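To: structure subgroup
Subject: Chain for Friday's discussion

All,

I'm putting the inputs and outputs inline so they're searchable in the archive.
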Amino acid sequence: MRFAGRITDWNDAKGFGFVVPNGGGDRAFVHINEFQRGSRRPVAGDLISYLPSRDQRGRINARQIRHAGQKIEVPRKPSRVPRAALGGTVLAVVAVLAAAAVIPVLIAGAMIGLSVVAYVVYWFDKSAALRGGQRTPESTLHFVGLLGGWPGALVAQQQFRHKTIKQPFQMVFWGTVVLNLVLVAWLVLSGTAAGVARSLGF
């Protein structure tokens, strides 16, 4: 059963707030990722409808949120490769290229290791967003991606439904992906990566 209510205590920087149901009752936690795709960014006082659900700690969360009067989105077949599949494929290709000695093992190991770090960092940030805790700065997320952890970031973004709607973040994120690819290409083609790998015994 869908409820209707108004958003209160909205924190736009963190993308969450609460909704108080019309007619009274317990307020529910609202997160930006639960809004129907194509929704405008919410502000305090917005009238919304939602499905209430309880998490493992008994807290009420608002799911499948729509602004009042918003049309129900008709599901469409995805036109793009899922982020998780893309990130996983990139890591698999990197491992194969390293095994075939096309790229140094050092670069492959760094990308795989940093992808694990990125996945964990995104998980921490998503968890903090849900419980209202201290968030990980976006600059940190971008820096890990720039260093080579962007495949793991892609997996985390899809799995946790985190940072996929915020367009300014996505623009910077894909910029770091391009910069990392350019850097890796230069390290490989210039022989710099191979030289460093040999000096380290790889």
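Points worth raising on Friday:
DSSP finds five helices and five strands in the chain.
Residues 105-131 form the longest helix (27 residues).

D.
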